[in-house]
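thread: overnight batch results

M.L. [08:02]
morning all. the overnight job finished for the chain we discussed friday. pasting input first so we're all looking at the same thing
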Amino acid sequence: MTENTENAQKNQTLERLRNILDNMECRHIKNDGAIYAMFHNENNGKTLACLFTAGEVKIQAAAWMAGVSCDDERRVEGLEFCNQWNCERVNPRAYIDGDGDLRVDMTLFEIEGLTDEYLEENFVRLFFSTANQFYDEAASKFA
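M.L. [08:03]
and the structure it wrote out:
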């Protein structure tokens, strides 16, 4: 696949994601080949910050939430929490970044041929839902 074809495919995928986020009335911006989105959770009043990127055959989402992190003293407890989450669930994958923030990410491969409805229900909404579940559980321990 040529570089131009690959870039066109990435942009088309990002445009599809933007349309899905528009339909969901989710605030977002596109910048440097990525989409930054803010998803407000009506249940807990918190905002989930998300980053969506697209590759040749995959799309990825990553999220973080302010105020949910582990300081050095609780890092082992945070790692145990993430490991338990990852053992019990396939998505999203949980980890602690270099700043001690609890993060989640999710990848969907082979996006060609998937309908927008499938992407919305089985990627975007699933990611928002499971990421919020992770942060609800994490906030009760680490916030």
